[in-house]
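Quick illustration for those who missed Monday's session on complexes.
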Amino acid sequence: MQPRDLSDHAPYVPGRGTEEVARELGLDPENLTKLSSNENPFGPSPKAVEAVRETASDIDVYPTTSHADLTEKLAEKWNLAPEQVWVSAGADGALDYLARAMLEPSDRILTPTPGFSYYGMSARYHHGEVAEYELTADNDFAQTPETVLEFYDGERIVYLTTPHNPTGSEFSRKDIREIAESVDDDTLVVVDEAYGEYSERPSSIDLLDQYDNIAVTRTFSKAYGIAGLRIGWAAVPEAWGDTYARVNTPFAANEVACRAALAALDDAEHVEKTVETAAWAREYLHDNLDAPTYESAGNFVLAEVGDASAVAEASQREGVIIRDCSSFGLPTCVRISCGTKAGTKKAVEVLNSILTEVAEA
Ligand SMILES: *Cc1c(COP(=O)(O)O)cnc(C)c1O
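Prediction with pyridoxal-5'-phosphate bound:
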């Protein structure tokens, strides 16, 4: 007995974890700087940690109230109706719900390449098919309506990532409007704002007032620092009414995650410090890394280093874990997450010495 034919389903390739690398290389995890998964280098908000502790004794019940409270709070913050807020297990969960809500078997979606692999994976789970639009290094991975529309052929969902992972490039708000206006009536434009907090551009969430074909995904994994709890959400068109109730896995997000997210939303200071430090780190990486870097609006910088696998491996041996972008189809690039000031400086020092060695070898 076998599962269905999954040969089209490429497994997700995550950034490497501290424990994993420490075990493999016999290093102390304490001495590793992990800049491979765009997590928050300051960890979670202390308020979220406190909420997790307090919730520990309540995990015997289903998360009815906390789920509703989080939905309500997000709706209020973003000026949405509660039905427009789809809380989920990570933004990845929201991507699944959107695919579930939209796709009939064989419907096509359009995703960026290079790009976040989960869009395509999620569509395939839901019996959809995947087409791609290309971002290219020769124009710094620019994201424009032309980039997308040149490849657009009536797909049911078009995914826009802004800031884009792994390149850091952005769409302007005008561009997003233009795309939403140019696609067919039954095409949903999903704007993935996983890194929205780091960008100086405004969110597209308020466009939902004017457009009935835009959804926006957001996460607590990055700027809010609670990736381990898996909590995110989508803002969906007003007209969808009770669709969430029809597609969601019951109690999509867990009690601890909902409580932590509620607390994290009350800690503006933590997000501010995180965003400011990321901006500093981006500049530091651009200015000091001995390799060409691409302009980034996220909490990471993409750099051209030649042999990305070799550089990422050497860097890891020196205690700095970065992301080899070969699995994104960029075998000459590494992605370095923004660390603390100390962590970012260490990464630059380690990488520069590796790049010198490679150049001299
Ligand atoms: C990290 C990330 C997400 C979502 O992550 P979750 O942990 O599932 O919330 C979504 N899109 C992109 C582009 C990301 O990098």
